[in-house]
Write a structure and sequence with these properties.
Number of strands: 0
Shape: globular
Structural class: mainly alpha
Radius of gyration: 13 Å
Strand content: under 5%
CATH class: Mainly Alpha
Length: 99
C-alpha cells in the first residue's frame, strides 16, 4: 500500500479541536482523526482542508463557546494560529494556560 499522504498522530488537544472543527463546519467528507495536525487549514494545497474566511469566523465562534478563548483579528497571533490544526491547538491551549 503506497499512500503519498502521511497523517501524523494528533495530540489529545488536537483531536478535541479536530472534532470541534468537523462538528462546527459540518465537514461531511472529513473525519476528525483524518485531519493531519500539520496540514494547512486554508487554501487548496495537498492535504489542506480548503477552508475559507467564513469558516474561520465559525471556528472562532465555536472555540469561544467551547473554551472561552476569543480569537480576535486584531491579535497578531491569531492569523498564524489558523495555519494548521497544531498551530490552532497550541494557540488556544496556550491562551487557556495564561488565564
Amino acid at each position: 500500500m503506497s499512500d503519498s499522504t502521511v497523517t501524523l498522530a494528533q495530540t489529545p488537544n488536537e483531536a478535541s479541536l479536530a472534532e470541534l472543527l468537523v462538528e462546527a463546519l459540518n465537514l461531511e467528507d472529513v473525519t476528525a482523526s483524518g485531519i493531519s495536525p500539520t496540514a494547512p487549514l486554508f487554501g487548496y494545497e495537498n492535504g489542506s482542508l480548503g477552508l475559507d474566511s467564513i469558516d474561520a469566523l465559525e471556528i472562532a465562534l465555536a472555540i469561544q463557546r467551547k473554551y472561552g478563548v476569543e480569537l480576535r483579528s486584531a491579535d497578531p497571533g491569531t492569523r498564524s494560529a489558523f495555519a494548521s490544526l497544531r498551530d490552532l491547538a497550541e494557540h488556544v491551549h496556550g491562551r487557556l494556560a495564561q488565564a
